[in-house]
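Example S7 (structure tokens).
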């Protein structure tokens, strides 16, 4: 790669060397670039100078604001060369591509098991440390992750927040809902296309786009596609649509 400025070349070389010369005086965390250190210090100071003009959410970096705004616009400029799936962030595209390439750059120092994502490695490390910092207030059972505790908590409350849209059956875990759909509904092949048996699928055979977005008037073939699109406009917590006259 070629660079216009010597400083840009230096920053690039650190990708290969792993050098992190900029250190935070408050927590000792190190960074490759001075700008990244400045953004990090804002976290300690509580400063978030860049705000979204649509939902008012604030950020420490302009880059994070640019990526966030794509939630509202629906822009996904980064597409996978293998399956054409599109992403709003280059980093998420990189993670996705590993599902095709099988690359696992993160390895466990204790057992040499490899992972495609750092978050998966962090979860795996808990199996070695056996740390269980999350305990149930009712039965005192302990868990390594808060998510596991929440799932366990439902055994006491009886809560079943995941509902099958096909038959109405409810489940305490999302994984159980997925298994149910695969084995009960898809396994039985309840919904077969006969160019008329399933309304949503039938519309894919037609060029008619009868469902339109009330915000931007974009049209869609299926109601599900229309609903998914509307989330782009309404995903901001403080976003309110103002009707124009």
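Recovered sequence:
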């Amino acid at each position: 790669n070629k660079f216009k400025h010597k400083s840009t070349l230096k920053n690039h070389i650190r990708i290969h060397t792993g050098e992190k010369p900029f250190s935070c005086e408050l927590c000792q965390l190190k960074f490759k670039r001075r700008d990244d250190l400045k953004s990090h210090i804002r976290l300690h100071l509580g400063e978030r100078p860049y705000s979204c003009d649509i939902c008012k959410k604030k950020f420490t970096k302009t880059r994070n604001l640019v990526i966030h705004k794509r939630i509202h616009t629906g822009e996904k400029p980064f597409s996978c060369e293998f399956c054409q799936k599109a992403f709003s962030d280059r980093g998420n595209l990189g993670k996705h591509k590993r599902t095709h390439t099988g690359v696992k750059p993160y390895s466990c120092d204790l057992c040499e098991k490899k992972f495609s994502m750092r978050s998966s490695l962090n979860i795996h490390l808990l199996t070695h440390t056996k740390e269980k910092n999350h305990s149930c207030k009712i039965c005192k059972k302990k868990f390594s992750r808060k998510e596991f505790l929440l799932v366990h908590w439902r055994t006491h409350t009886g809560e079943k927040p995941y509902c099958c849209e096909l038959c109405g059956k409810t489940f305490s875990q999302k994984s159980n809902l997925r298994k149910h759909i695969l084995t009960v509904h898809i396994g039985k092949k309840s919904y077969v296309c006969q160019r008329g048996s399933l309304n949503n699928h039938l519309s894919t055979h037609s060029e008619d786009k009868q469902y339109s977005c009330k915000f931007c008037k974009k049209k869609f073939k299926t109601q599900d596609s229309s609903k998914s699109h509307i989330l782009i406009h309404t995903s901001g917590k403080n976003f309110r649509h103002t009707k124009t006259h």
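Notes on this example. The chain has nine helices and 14 strands.
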